């Protein structure tokens, strides 16, 4: 593993958030000031392909990256763009029972106003 890849990996592992490439770049730059945005993008692609991290695609949003690689659901705050995990069980079986055909994949996009934004709004 290259030094850059290790740093990018650590940034993701140490964060509680689902960061975008740009947010990961900002953090990685604190550790390695010479790192380039292109390097971050390239390594994020390699690591998601290798299954080391999870790429989360959200409509109308930049991709977010997750250290939790097992399939799980996310919700998106439409106000700040933050992505959160949601503990919803896998729906494949239920969908298959309802539809009567094997489900290859499905996308679930849940849009919310997150706690932080609700607090900000209440002030
Ligand atoms: Zn929010
Ligand atoms: Zn997640």
Q: What is the share of helical residues?
A: 40-55%
Number of domains: 2
Low-confidence stretches: none
What distance separates the N and C termini?
A: 47 Å
Largest sheet: 3 strands, antiparallel
Number of helices: 5
Shape, per Cα inertia axes: flat
Bound molecules: zinc ion
**CATH architecture identity of the largest domain:** Orthogonal Bundle
Strand content: 15-25%
The overall pLDDT average reads 94
Query: Based on DSSP secondary structure assignment, what is the total number of beta strands?
Result: 6
CATH superfamily of the largest domain: Winged helix-like DNA-binding domain superfamily/Winged helix DNA-binding domain
Order of helices and strands: HEHHEEEEHEH
**CATH class call of the largest domain:** Mainly Alpha
Radius of gyration, Cα only, in angstroms? 17 Å
CATH topology of the largest domain: Arc Repressor Mutant, subunit A
From the helix content, strand content and strand pairing, which structural class follows? alpha+beta
- What is the topology, as strand order, of the major beta sheet? 1-3-2
């Amino acid at each position: 593993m290259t030094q850059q890849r290790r740093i990018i990996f650590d940034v993701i592992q140490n964060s509680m958030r689902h960061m975008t490439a740009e947010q990961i770049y900002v953090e990685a730059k604190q550790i390695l000031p010479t790192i380039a945005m292109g390097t971050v993008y390239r390594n994020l692609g390699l690591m998601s392909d290798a299954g080391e991290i999870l790429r989360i695609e959200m409509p109308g949003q930049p991709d977010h990256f997750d250290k939790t690689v097992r399939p799980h659901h996310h919700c998106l705050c439409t106000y700040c763009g933050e992505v959160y995990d949601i503990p919803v069980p896998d729906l494949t079986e239920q969908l298959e029972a309802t539809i009567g055909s094997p489900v290859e994949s499905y996308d679930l996009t849940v849009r919310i106003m997150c706690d932080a934004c609700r607090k900000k709004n209440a002030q």
